[in-house]
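Lab notes, practical 5.
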Amino acid sequence: MDFELRRIIETALQEDIGSGDITTQATVSSELVSRAELIAKEDFVLAGINVAAEVFKAIDPDIAFEGLIADGQKVQKGEVLAWLKGPASSLLQGERVALNLLQRMSGISTMTSSFVREVAATDAIVVDTRKTMPGLRVLDKYAVRTGGGSNHRTSLYDGVLIKENHITAAGSITVAIERARARAPHTLKIEVETTNIVEVTEALQAGADIILLDNMTLEQLREAVQLVAGRARTEASGGVSLETVREIAETGVDLISVGALTHSVKAVDISMLFTP
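Output from the prediction step:
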């Protein structure tokens, strides 16, 4: 993650600062040393405190950053997340990027935690998707794990997921699975998307390792789970919300993928304020 994190931070800082922070250069003495706090403005599950620290370190190695709360912990409104001390101009230049990343990541971990809590005492595992913010996938997926969820495949290279268009192009589920089995490394599992019980049956007979049950009703999910009977893992996808996830989990599926964890997340509210 270190290489990816450096790339993300450098890109974000270049985008934000560009040729220089005109406002800070005009109003703040370059010799002024200040203290600041990162403060929670609402309740949430923290994720990304070390990422924020790395942002300020990239701006100025002389900035002292002390995180007070660890990732994965619940934070209450008004709590101080970190103390900072360093050149005021450096703190101001790092503020927006650090907060943008910290607020997004904490929003993801908070939403994930809510979904995980809803499926408690079932065997279902909440997983994410590739519907992440371009360029931030490594942070988005870390935040999902921090919130208690699990990661689906990271990218196109680390998992075989045969979807509707692959099946159409190949001609059938069976042909698509046969081709994937012949080409893909033996270490990769093969997952196939299905939309009805007929397709589930074909995927099972063709030897799929994981069967994705896309936009199925609760009755269809239960029937599919009974049909598969442990011969492959089952994943429910589509139409998953905090209001529906519990009922979906109770059908007996192994996995529930939730795109909203990363594509529709609301950033939490965090402020950086200078202190005396």
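Observations recorded by the TA: The chain has a mean pLDDT of 97. The longest helix spans residues 88-118.
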